[in-house]
Amino acid sequence: MKTLICCAVAAVLLHITPTVTLVDRSEVVSRLLEGADRFTAREVHLSSADERRLHDAAGWTPPDDVITFYLGKHADQVEGVLVFMRVDSPHGPMEVAVGFDKAGAIRGVEVTKATVETKPWIVEALRAGLREHYRGLTSDASPAGAGTVKGKVGTMAEYMAELVDRGVAHAGAAYRLFYR
Questions:
Q1: How deeply is 161 buried, as exposed, middle or buried, from its count of CB atoms within 10 A (0-12, 13-18, 19+)?
Q2: In 15-116, where does DSSP find H-type helix?
Q3: Whole-angstrom distance, CA of residue 138 vs CA of residue 58
Q4: Which of 68, 63, 95, 94 is nearest to 82 (CA)?
Q5: pLDDT tens for residues 71-105?
Q6: What residue ranges define each of the domains in the chain, with the CATH number in brackets?
Q7: ∠150-155-158 over CA atoms, to 5°?
Q8: Which end of the chain is more exposed for a tag (fewer CB within 10 A), N or C?
Q9: How far is Cα 110 from Cα 87, in angstroms, rounded to an integer?
Q10: Which band of pLDDT confidence, cut at 50, 70 and 90, is reported for residue 10?
Q11: Separation between Cα atoms, residue 16 and residue 13, nearest integer Å
Q12: Percent of the chain that is helix, strand, coil (3-state, to 5)
């Protein structure tokens, strides 16, 4: 009984809520890699020097030192590249999918996973037009989608939009440094 109470207290203190899927990964692949009919994954295992480069560029490194790029091909030509980025917050993780076109510009952004707690805030930011800001940005651009929804949504939705910006920036740095 003591263990059960300790676990319950720890869960409350750690603010843990379950993760939910907002958009299925297969749907994201079809949206962000449109025109592709073959798909492959390319894993990049980062060395210490690579981690330093990425951290200097984006203030971030992946927790497992691996970045996975999903390539969509048609007729042996790459149509686009997709990266799933995990962004952590005190309210739990979210997963942001960023698709790049052949030229390296952002084709689209989707939030695929969130927590039960953050889902309403993320949906509010997305409905306010957050995704539209990212289309066409280059991988070295500073995403500022949160600024486009500021004043149109509540403060927690603005915060979630800032986290999406962070995920897009991380994806851009990863793409620029390790895919191109």
A1: buried
A2: 25-32, 48-58
A3: 15
A4: 68
A5: 999 999 999 999 999 999 999 999 999 999 999 99
A6: 16-178 (3.90.1010.10)
A7: 45
A8: N
A9: 13
A10: low
A11: 8
A12: 40, 30, 30
Sign of CA dihedral 170, 172, 175, 176: negative
Specify whether the CB–CB gap between 176 and 139 falls below 8 A.
yes
Average pLDDT of span 119-123:
97
Query: What length is written for the chain?
Result: 180
**Whole-number pLDDT of residue 163:** 98
Backbone angles phi, psi at 46, to 5 degrees: -80, 135
Q: Tokens representing 124?
A: 């509010």
What are the tokens at 143? 């995403």
